[in-house]
Amino acid sequence: MPKQNGLFKLKGTLQGKCYYQLNGQYIVRKAVGPSRERINTDPAFSNVKSNNQEFAAASKLSKALRQGLGDNAIRFKDSYMTGRLTGCCRKIIQKGSGLVGQREANLHNHPTALIGFQLKKELPLEQIYTAKPQININNTRHKIDINIPKSNSNHHNQKPINATHFQLTAALSLVSNLQWESNENAYQPTHSELHTLSITNQTQPLLCKIEHTHIHMPLHMPTTVELPNTIAITVWLGITYLKIDDGNYVTYQSPKAMACIAVL
Length: 264
Description:
This protein has 5 helices and 14 strands. It is of the alpha+beta class.
């Protein structure tokens, strides 16, 4: 065990190292935090335990959103998307009812925390493509209609010079509330059979240089089961650009973007 050298001997913790006296000798070692068992059982760490539980819930909620997006989450994301989305989910949980450490994870409690979330932060959808989508849902919550009334060349702010076409991707993902289950000592979805169900729809490649009216992207629910209020429907919209090369469409890797446009 390393001993302290020098004229002055320290006691306490400084810059990640613990200084103390043992059997008449002054010792230094790497500071070690409390064990998981102590955090879970010692009342002095009740706040730490509560924060850990809700962080675990935020991670689980973030994972559900990514699973629901499927390949879209991989295709449009940046390197920090997972961490940013988990932070967003943490804000949602803080608006939940219940005791701290056991508050429900319910997207409907704070939908504005997710709406506008960009899978790629430095390329926001609304800066690349400025046409405004309209979102409608039917009475049974089983069909979402995304409609863009008008799209023309002026709506493309960052189109690659040689791009001839663009393609829109609409995605829908179901997310169940997560609630704290004391008998399992963990957060669990209230409706696991509906949790992370999803569907994606894409337009055909559309010419950038002409005006398009009423671009319509329907999203039919991937289940016929009646959706309870504890299920949130997240709706996402993305854009990519293409060019024709030897008769085939080639997709540009940048710019491209996808964002959450509604929580229903």
